[in-house]
Automatic annotation (TrEMBL):
The lineage of its organism: Bacteria, Bacillati, Actinomycetota, Actinomycetes, Kitasatosporales. It catalyses: DNA(n) + a 2'-deoxyribonucleoside 5'-triphosphate = DNA(n+1) + diphosphate. Keywords: Cytoplasm, DNA damage, DNA repair, DNA replication, DNA-binding, DNA-directed DNA polymerase, Magnesium, Metal-binding, Mutator protein, Nucleotidyltransferase, Transferase. Residues 457-473 have a biased composition (Polar residues). This is DNA polymerase IV. It is found in: Cytoplasm. Binds 2 magnesium ions per subunit. It comes from the Bacteria. Its EC number is 2.7.7.7. It comes from Streptomyces endophyticus. The active site is at E106. It holds the Pfam family HHH_5. Its cofactor is Mg(2+).
Length: 473
């Protein structure tokens, strides 16, 4: 393990909910819940105000509504979140060539590889500057953990939340982890914690004290050994940039479960296409195609198929992903789909797949035709056609007379709109219209920071101006 805390973990604070509060002045300081609002909907993110009522991500929406009946309930605006994510990832990319994104709002950065930091002081300075840059460019806050390993850096950012920075000095890891609940270790959920508790193990130092043999006896070889290593704060995993990784994958979470089998097939084909785009951008090819399906009940399946040789051909990957999907039951609804390619190589054995060529081209052309419509459904944006338009709670609209606003609610042929923009200081006015009002139209999300597109990336402001600062020293 390295001797300086130069692995950085960034995690944006309550990302979707914070973006909605920044966009909607009337929701600032209020309980906001973003997620699927249908009968089987699940919370994606809850604002800190909503968390005080016990609402948390992955909770069924019905339960959230019972706990926090007065919270604002909004449908995610993935297009906006992706745009913000790109701004954040660009700032991270300026620090190091080794950036490993874990999701839209979370990533590891190897500061040493980017020569951005070499010891605790320089790493901490980079962390502060990054947080200030993120705030300036996106208008949102992110928390930073700095440590000598990925595991501790991630624990650090969790401890720093919200809007903070925690640096864990090498050598102090075991003292920090020792008295904490076993739940602080990654991968220890309620079931494992319960199992350990019945064996008399509740803290991390009790895991270390029990010894590896006992852990293996309790949890099996792989899980037991891994947990023992983590309890000793041993984590040698490197930060891996996509181009160096062993696999490339893309996935999408849907705000509304997909039940329609035809739609599921279309989504899988589209994801396969996107996956190959990334594979090609990295100038790689791969042998194993992986399909990931998370169902309505959060059970997650992965299926894989290994080809005779590596490929970067969209038709081949699509065909394989489609075959894998045929073996998966999706009747209850699908929450997340992913397609990946692993077993990467730097070359392609194209001739192995010559026989597929004609079929692939036909499939590719077919896909181009429907890609646009699928993309808009996936992003849960209102359809531009008046007959189909849906007024989803939280989504953007524009009224010919009153200007920009967002849907506060709809039903019984009426839609209630609050007219306000991210740049206002005070809540805007509310008006109600008929759902077919010709003056009301769905609109694109406004950037959270006015003129953000022109903002310069890379300058910094003084750490002392930031609120709620913590330090792990
Ligand atoms: Mg986050």
């Amino acid at each position: 393990m390295r001797t300086a805390p130069t692995i950085l973990h960034l995690d944006m604070d309550a990302f979707y909910a914070s973006a909605e509060q920044a966009a909607k002045p009337s929701l600032r300081g209020k309980a906001v819940v973003v997620g699927g609002l249908g009968p089987r909907g699940v919370v994606a993110t809850a604002s800190y105000e909503a968390r005080k009522f016990g609402v948390h991500s992955a909770m069924p929406m019905g339960q959230a509504r019972r706990l926090a009946p007065h919270a604002a309930y909004l449908v995610p605006r993935f297009r906006l979140y992706r745009e913000i994510s790109e701004q954040v990832m660009e700032l991270l990319g300026a620090l190091s060539p080794l950036v490993e994104p874990l999701s839209l709002d979370e990533a590891f950065v190897d500061l040493e590889a980017g020569e951005a930091a070499w010891d605790a002081a320089s790493a901490e300075a980079v962390g502060w500057r990054l947080r200030a840059d993120i705030r300036r460019v996106t208008g949102l806050t992110g928390s930073v953990g700095l440590a000598a390993s990925k595991m501790l850096a991630k624990i650090g950012s969790e401890e720093a939340k919200p809007d903070g920075l925690v640096l864990i000095r090498p050598g102090t890891e075991r003292a920090l982890l020792g008295p904490r609940s076993v739940r602080i270790l990654p991968g220890v959920g309620p079931a494992t914690a319960d199992h350990l508790r019945r064996a008399g193990i509740q803290t991390v130092e009790e895991i270390a004290g029990a010894g590896e043999d006992e852990l293996v006896r309790l949890l099996g070889k792989a899980h037991g050994s891994h947990l023992y290593e983590m309890a000793l704060a041993r984590d040698e995993r490197p930060v891996v940039a996509e181009r160096d990784s062993k696999s490339v994958s893309v996935e999408d979470t849907y705000d509304v479960d997909i039940h329609d089998r035809v739609r599921v097939r279309m989504e899988v084909r589209r994801l396969a296409g996107r996956c190959v785009e990334r594979l090609r951008a990295a100038e790689r090819s791969g042998r194993t195609v992986v399909l990931k399906v998370r169902r309505y009940d959060f059970s997650t399946l992965t299926r894989s198929e290994t080809l005779r040789g590596p490929t970067d051909d969209p038709g081949v990957v699509r065909e394989a992903a489609a075959r894998l999907l045929e073996g998966v039951d999706t009747t209850g609804g699908v929450r997340l789909l992913g397609v990946g390619v692993s077993g990467l190589a730097d070359f392609t054995q194209e001739d192995l797949f010559a026989q597929f060529a004609a079929a692939e081209e036909a499939a590719a052309e077919e896909l181009e035709g429907d890609a646009g419509s699928v993309e808009s459904v996936e992003a849960a944006e209102p359809e531009p056609t008046p007959v189909e338009r849906k007024w989803l709670a939280g989504h953007d609209v524009r009224h010919a007379e009153f200007g920009a606003g967002w849907v506060q609610g709809s039903g019984l042929g009426r839609v209630t709109v609050r007219f306000e923009t991210p740049y206002a200081e005070v809540p805007g006015r509310v008006r109600t219209f008929r759902v077919d009002d010709p003056e009301l139209e769905p609109a694109e999300p406004l950037p959270l920071v006015e003129g953000a597109e022109e903002a310069q990336v890379g300058s910094s402001s003084a750490p002392a101006t930031l609120p709620n600062v913590t330090s792990g020293d």
